[in-house]
Amino acid sequence: MLNCDVSSVSFQPATPAPVRKQRGHHRTSGWVPNQHGAWAMVIVPWVLGTWLRFHQGRGAAYALVLGLFWLVGYFTFHATSVWLKSRRQARYRRPVLVYGAITAALGLLTWALAGVALAWWVVPFVPVLAVALALAASRHERALVGGLLTVAAACLVVLVAAYASPAEVPSSDGTAVGLALACLGYFGGTVFFVKSMIRERGNAGFLAMSVGWHVAVLAAAVVASLLTGFPWAWAVLFAILVVRSLALPLVGPMRTDGLRFTPKQLGLAEGVFSLALMVIAFTTS
């Protein structure tokens, strides 16, 4: 016979399954971008180009409207990326339509203020936008190439804000070009650095790529300072960033018991370095 001794059975209350904390609606609706570090990449190049335009005594209206166009355009890009990534679900379509309409209106106003020559600036942005949206549609929007292309487009805004026509750039003193390249060196480095801390954490090969980028940018700044009089303050900033690109991963994700850094913490730190970048630009250009 089967002997069931219930006295030896221990009954314990069932442990409830952990409840996943739902993310706020704004994180997935497409209305508000949720990438902390992207704000500096969007705003800083426009600020530098606009400041340079004012500093040279040229019109303010164009640059200010361009800034609104660029900001809302970023919202449109984000909303479109979310919609494409969702396989074009209807609930993500409204932000695309609303932001898209506002962007179109601001684009026409910017064009009216700047003149027909502004259209030539569209040429380098179209392939970047096409690649970025294609990556979003295939759910690879976080790919390294996509990040670097987006950074390149954002840094180009330094020139767009400073000069309404690309034809003005060759006859300029090169300050805007230098600032755009400095932004490219810095923000391109943030793409590598943040990935080495989060998505590629523990990947020694990717860490080497990240440090290599930062060292190359530092070397370029030193050479530019020696040959062209490029302010040495940039080399100092990039030297600090070289140390950061290696030190933080080594004390953090490259160790099993290393420090943990959240995306928000990294984004706030990038904000501090972005302020340092602007201070150098304002005081040396």
From TrEMBL:
The keyword Acetylation does not apply. It comes from Raineyella antarctica. The keyword Transcription regulation does not apply. Coiled coil: none annotated. Keywords: Membrane, Transmembrane, Transmembrane helix. The chain crosses the membrane at residues 37-54, 60-84, 96-113, 119-137, 144-164, 176-194, 206-226, 232-254, 266-284. This is YwiC-like protein.
